[in-house]
Amino acid sequence: MQKRSSTRVAIVAVLLTATLVAVPLGQGTAPAEAAAAGAPVGNVGKFKQRVIENFTTAAAAKGKFQKTYAKNWQPYPDGTGGMYFSGTQISGHDGVMDVLLDGKKGAAGTFGTAQDAWTHVGGKFTVRARATGGDGNGAAFMLWPNSNRWADGEIDYPEANFEQSPMVFQHSMTPGQEVNATSHWTGVSWRTWHTYSIEWIPKKSVTYLLDGKVIKTITRDVPTTGHRYMFQVGNWGAKGHLYIDWFTTYDYVK
Q1: Which of 40, 120, 127, 235 could pair with 247 in a Cys bridge, judged by C-beta atoms 3.0 to 4.6 Å apart?
Q2: What is the phi-psi region of residue 51: left when phi exceeds 0, alpha when psi lies from -120 to 50, beta otherwise?
Q3: Is the peptide bond before 175 cis (omega within 30 degrees of 0)?
């Protein structure tokens, strides 16, 4: 997304080591065409399902969202990096997590429990998402190393400005070359619901799926250490909403 490299890389150590104490709030109208089926249930091959979240309980303001979803959502503390304020930007309604985009405050956090969200070494990670408005802003859903050492591997999918097509970015693990990435264009739009999956097998491959179909497999720069599954949106751009219908995570079982 725009400003991603200059902003996130500069403050990444601050952002990703923050204590998880934020208090989310949000607002918005019901997103069009929200799904009824919810997240898939059950293991997938060598991937054992760990977490399922469908955001079925409404939770609007001043701590309600964080309290309701504390088992599966760990926001950055409000004010982290001077730009992330999940407490005023995020709510739950109509079966979705609603991230308010106002051009002034960003939002970010990690999916999973406070104890287990930082223990992924391999796995499958799936989110169903859609955005309205927000031109000039964008989202980065990612697997980020728990070490906060960029060379331990960064996997981004989906990532792009909301007026652009979501993309894959798998970054170099060569120290000093991390800004370089293998990329792939999905050709779809944030304006319609899509399901984005990452299948990570340590030391072997990372496979990317769009709506259940493989679109890319990458066998270099494959992480081998613990990562967290998370997302960020910026504090710039036009007004709008990022809607997350559901997410689910799986452990890789050898």
Answers
A1: 127
A2: beta
A3: no
